[in-house]
Amino acid sequence: MYSCLEHIEESMDRFLDEYGKLPILVEVEIEHKCEHCDQVAVYKVIEGMMVEDEDEL
Ligand SMILES: [Zn+2]
What we know:
This is CxxH/CxxC protein. InterPro entries: YyzF (IPR025626). By secondary structure, the chain is α+β, with helices and mostly antiparallel strands. It has one domain. Helix content is 21%, strand content 21%. It has one helix at residues 8-19, and strands spanning 2-3, 23-27, 43-47. The longest helix has 12 residues, at 8-19. The chain binds zinc ion. Zinc ion (ZN) is lined by residues 3-4, 6-7, 34, 36-37, 39.
């Protein structure tokens, strides 16, 4: 989900509520709107990698 700076906490809380997974932030490269308002999004909230999930090296 996309978020502006103002709504980053809301977005991370919502991500945790919806997916029960640790969110991480990546900078938005393509212009996109915040999901909480109409401002331009600065960050995209994505699922963080769990270290134990992909441990095949
Ligand atoms: Zn916003």
